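Consider this one:
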Amino acid sequence: MITALKTPFVNIKSVHLAYDAGTDAITAARAEFTAAGLQIVGGGTITFDKDTDDGVEAYFRYAKAAGMPLIVAACEPTLLPRIERFAIRYDIKVALHNHGPEDKVFPSPLDPLRHVKGMDPRMGLCVDVGHTVRTGTDVVSALATAGPRVLDMHMKDLRDLRDINSQCVVGEGAMPIPAIFAQLRAIGYGGYVNLEYEIEADNPLPGMRQSFAYMRGVLAESARRRG
């Protein structure tokens, strides 16, 4: 399905590659992605739940073996200095994921931003646009505020910007997709915009194709207007 979407980029989760798979299994899995013409551009969300060097480093060893240049992460703020130390040591970016009103730690991207803004540049945000708007946060303004701390993006659309159950094909909802892409360009964003399509599990490909087509159309129109 990824190949059908005409993108070589993929962000994987532990359901694709278990944390405890072992070095040989991880190396073999990485080779499978490469053989399929796919590039692993990140992994997660990975929840750092042990405030010890061994507990944190285990996930960095996993990410390094899998060839992940970036970890999409969740954690308590108290773990961030330890995580930062290993992000520098392994030269792997850490993008803290916001999870909306249900997340008591990082509901909006502005919440982790307060903690990482003085840290190493490898410490930043994975902005989930769906969860962001459900908090009442203006996602375009949040991107402008975060600027270079935006390291990764999870893209989706909602018919009702406050309802998690209203997810739809990108372009059919109320998400300000053109303004989001315009703001990403304005801040010089150089990362990936990952489609997170969490509906139509039995047959997601048509909706994913339509979502990609809409986003590519937005980018093409933007490029045409610029000249």
